[in-house]
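Task: encode each sequence below as structure tokens.

Item 1
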Amino acid sequence: MEYRQLGGSGLQVPVLSLGTGTFGGGNEFFKAWGTSDVAEATRLVDICLDAGLNLFDSADIYSRGMAEEILGQAIKGRRDKVLLSTKGTFRFGEGPNEVGSSRYHLTRSVEASLKRLGTDHIDLYQLHGFDALTPIEEVLATFDTLVRAGKILYVGCSNFSGWHLMKSLALAEKYGFPRYVAHQAYYSLVGRDYEWELMPLALDQKVGTVVWSPLGWGRLTGKIRRGQPLPATSRLQSKAVTDIGPQVPQEYLYKVVDALDEVARDTGKTVPQVALNWLLQRPSVSTVIIGARNEEQLKQNLGAVGWHLTAEQVKKLETASATPMTYPYWHQSGFKERNPFPV
């Protein structure tokens, strides 16, 4: 397993990490992703650690806390061998203060996650979304208190716009508050919008990208192809999943999958392995979160490391997955002499 620095921090993380959205299956949405219980989750953690993958990512809303509880049980007795990452911000109760990144909700969310995970500290805590109603200074001051108390080691964010992240970084520098070292963002061969604004920002500000849904919300599993029915086990069969997730035009998807099939044949790898390996070669990426319903899927995804696509293969994938840029990015791309971004 290869390790990389998490952004500008001194923390080394594996290039692949395990997401726990498949743990629990507490409602229709999460059942579509997986329903691993403690026994299966423990076995998945075993396989990960044997492969050198020691970073596990969760969130309080994953099956309403069940995922964190199951992860806590799965790592019991070996907390010193793992890195824990989790998230909060989204609604977790009916009250007016049970949502957002206020000092009230953020502090309560961290305390609850610590309890569910069965630990005294979280290695990386991320805001799950941007709260425009809470002053950024309040958010960062709260993180400062939690870091000084030893309850959080590093802080990050998720699903931020470029200005959300840049303003937060500027205020952290101004007041000496903890700086976001990670941005958990959606990025895949069928979702490359991240490259336009967030990738240049990450490179400039040394924010490590933690990639979620690297297989395009279940579209790049190798089971979805032109002229074939959607597999019965696909999460895309669930309306709860398709209504919330990124939308991808069918013809565009098939074009990308055709290119993946070609590269997979050339390399002797699977479609998911090729899609993951492409991400591992992209600038700013610190770690890619993989998910797994079972041991077989996990072992297959772990096969994405230890080899590299050739420049020709990368070009084939990027040509197939390219989409027209919106303004001002298409205009900026013509000034690479002095403005090399986007990359």
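Item 2
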Amino acid sequence: MTTTEAFDGLVCTDCDETFGVDTHGQCPACGGVVTPRYDLDEETVVQGLVDPDAVPLPFTREVRVTASEGATPLVAAGRLADEMGVASLSIKDEGRNPTGTVYDRGMSLAVTAADRDGTEPLALAAAGNAGQSAAAYAGRIDARSYAFVPSRTAFSNKALVNVHGGEMRVVGGRFDDAAAAVDEQLATDYHSLSAFETAYRHDGTKSLVYEVVVEDALARGDLSARTASAVAEALPLSPPDALVVPVGTGELVVAVARGLDELTSTGVLADPPTVHPVQPAGCAPIVSAHSASAETTEPWETPDTIVGELEIPDPAGGDLALDALAAVGGEGVTVSDDDALESAVTVAQTEVLEVGGAGGVALAGAWDLAESGELDGDDRVVVVNTDAGVKTPDVLRSHLMGKGI
């Protein structure tokens, strides 16, 4: 398979063993998480800013399994900015991706690698959205796929796994039960698309950061045009002051930190923004560990949140997320389900956008950060909405019914 010039192979995040692109799954030496590494310079990174297809990734655009994921809008939310008392607030709306989720960015790469590997079926455990995304991209290469999801997964995800041609296995219990069922129920070799069992999902998602940086610079007038010459004249770029992200498996935090590191290490970005992780109060292993300055996460004993996408009690990327937050992380926040759903509804009613429950978690976290003074009137804030509101409209509507509406 054709790889990009910048791609410099795979490396284990635990033992530092290096591998070629033919290695799939976790580290064969120690079982650690494997991730791509790159040899980057300013010119390569600048090209990634001006052309979404040129973000440094392992595979060339000609061979990627793609459905034009990415290039999602950064939507100004002026009314919310005024109410929060911050200089500006924008929402990076990942609900505009092909299957309505941020996971499409990484699944494109993961399925590209699976296509080269040739092992079928493709399989993963998912809270919902990742299973739908995997089925869609697997269909693009005519590969059999299995999504193992907990019984509480949204009906829209369950239905569309099948609509995209994937096989769905509903597992009683919660996410960890679904994860355990993959090996228990699949009596064959398979290519895993689960978070951090493939080297590519978290790497592909970093493209979100490239887009946020250039779109923010254009919106503020720091950048006159999205061209290499205009970017070169404006270097180093100034990022937003804060990124507020919902956290589940740790995938998004790791991806954001990877993108920021590439931009800052090459001198394209002056300094990274502060990344604020937000989780539901009923399942917050990463935020709790980050707030305690711990080096490892502990499994959440009694997970309980209506935001099923973020109910990941023992996240596979927990420790990597903590490492990432040690470099770029600010205050972590936990929010109630009611506040998350109220935030999602408020955005729909005041800013047009239909955000999902996870996006509501991030928005509620931004509110709390503003109320505590962590964010103030000088801060430019970007909140990441990771999925479309139409994924779980019944949950949002039930919140209104609970208020008598």
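Check on item 2: The mean pLDDT is 96. The two ends are 55 Å apart (CA to CA).
End of task.
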